[in-house]
Amino acid sequence: MGRCQDEHRKREYVIRIRISGDALLDLEVGYEFYERQEPGLGEYFATHIRADIEGLKITAGIHRKLYRDLHRLMSKKFPFAIFYQLEGEVATVVAIVDCRMDPEWIDLHLDPGDD
């Protein structure tokens, strides 16, 4: 049996998900953007982003670390990335970022303490 299968077998528990206040604000901003495009599209966006986040209960930790200690999960339906930290059995979503934004803006958004 492969190493990956052995590691998966060891983790037979479900990861708990926490969503930071900043990430909830990001979700609200995305919702409002899409709702302005077409009524109902904001709810469609939020539903799919929440489903992507819910999937972390099983898949947390498999995503590439793209920025410091943050894993990046790409949304399946929208050009958004979900950045999260994994500490033990808890995945904390820290940002939900529109990938169409300027990369410098994204860097600042992910690390607002660096001025």
Sum up the overall morphology in one term: globular
Strand order in the largest sheet:
1-5-4-3-2
Characterize the biggest β-sheet: 5 strands, mixed
**Average pLDDT over all residues:** 88
Which sequence of SSEs, written as H and E, runs from N to C?
HEHHHEEEEH
- Architecture in CATH? 2-Layer Sandwich
Could you name the CATH class? Alpha Beta
Q: Count up the helices.
A: 5
Could you give the distance between the termini? Answer: 48 Å
CATH topology: YaeB-like fold
Portion of residues within helices: 40-55%
The CATH superfamily label reads RelE-like
Total beta strands: 5
Q: Residue ranges: pLDDT <50 for 5 or more in a row?
A: none
**Integer-rounded radius of gyration:** 15 Å
Tally the structural domains.
1
Strand pairing plus helix content: what structural class? Answer: alpha+beta
How much of the sequence lies in strands comes to 25-35%
